[in-house]
Amino acid sequence: MAEKNIVIVGAGFGGVFAAKTLSKKLKSHKEYNIILIDKHSYFTYMTELHEVASQRVAPKHVQEDLEHLFYQNKNVKLLTAEVNGINKNDKIIKTTHGDINYEKLILAIGGQSNDFGTPGVKEHGFEMWSMEESLKIRNHVENIIGQGAAELDPVKRAQLLTIAVVGSGFTGAELMGEFIEQRRVLAQNYKLDESEIKLVLLEASPSILNMLKDRHLADKAFKYMTSNGVDIRLNSRVTGVNEDGVIFADESTLPTKSLIWTAGVKAKSFISDWGFKYARGGRIEADDYMRAKLDNDESATDIYVAGDTLSYVDEKTGPVPQTVEGAESAARTASHNLLADLGFGQAKTFSELVKYHGFAVSIGSHYTVASLMGLNFSGFFASLAKHGINLFFYSQIRSMYSIFHYMMDEFFRTENGRNPFQGTISRLGNVLWSTPLRLFLGIFWILAAVGGLGDLNMLFWQHGLASFIEIVTGAGILLGLFTWPLAVVSIILTITAWATNGFDMTHWFILLSSIAIMNGSGRGFGLDFYVVPLLQKLFGGLWYGKAKSIYDDLDK
User: What is the pTM of this model?
Assistant: First the structure.
């Protein structure tokens, strides 16, 4: 049977979701190839880029290698290439890799920052709609604050120590929230008073977070930022940017070397001549089934749209937002109807398949405003809800690897208290100091097995299988080999001894010591320093494959 290509352009939220959905549905239909094309070999969690820009997390935290995501999806082929155009008559996608025939096509190319033609933004400012742009901001802010700390001229010093963000939508508000927390770290590093680092949020309209229907939540976000020293300037329309700072409509200025533009999003400009019907922001209009509209206003029969490339207004929920759930709902509709075209099910409209659970806007790691499932709330629990939304997405793309590393990066590997728990559960403390406790615990179990504990011998065992398990547990913990699982065995042995031989305070000490050494103490003068990374590499490769900087699966 001749193979048929289902091509998805763009490995963002919509593209990855569509590829996963189609892969599952067409798993037993070997005649279909799903080809996922992107100019990067990784998926970027776009809604977390502000955390990278503000040094809250490492860049790899928001990158998920496509091989990891799709290694178990054998009917998905990855191609790292740029798309140059579409021949709709011959059903061909033109790429830097060459021409690719398609049976069905989903365009989920994503968006880019929209500066609305404001002079000087690209030359003298920063935008934040890609990993590359976030890294530029990350490096610039660190360097410019360092320069400001060393500047003796008060006027130049103030300019260097001023960070301005244009746009108070989700991206701008979340970025400013991160800067609130980063400011504290930068001030300590460069021996500054926090108040010297000026944070300014510029908004052209009379209010912030204007996409929120509940203005009470927007007011809470406003109060949180202002109470943390953010200068929020409403009705401040930026008309230009130069090397000295920001120029406003009333011709006043704000001296700064750090202008970050987050005020708008538009479709990628290179799709503008592909022969579709375009709406605001250069987005491709779609019909109720997410089929792309052609320039003659007819719906394409074999091309679908999702993500920030899409322009569609649902009669019930309004315009599809540039959010994760907006991208998912469009991708879900496109995938469902594409499958219906192929004879798998009945066509359904966007209204029938849309799923919006709500939103959460994090103003830094400690404070969030959220509206989920009809409930409005803010603060600590809203911050946990924001993480829950992110984890829910990862569960939908079926990546336990992503979920594990997300939890580690956002909760247990955080620096400077930047997690919802103020850093109290971070494991970045020096585990070297738990090494003596680990050595003690290992020796304890060996002595327990051979009867070397004196009066405490009666609390444990010195014969049979139990004694053997004590020796293995003690030796492994002593050597720092498989410390975490053997700590679990230590806990089980202690509880069993407690239940069998009666309670003694020694049991509590051993139980709590076993928990304490689970915090990576096997890597402090232990064999886990070598063994754990080796096992991660070995078994990770077997399950997730090997990450590459460029993919070309078409020749397989």
Answer: 0.83
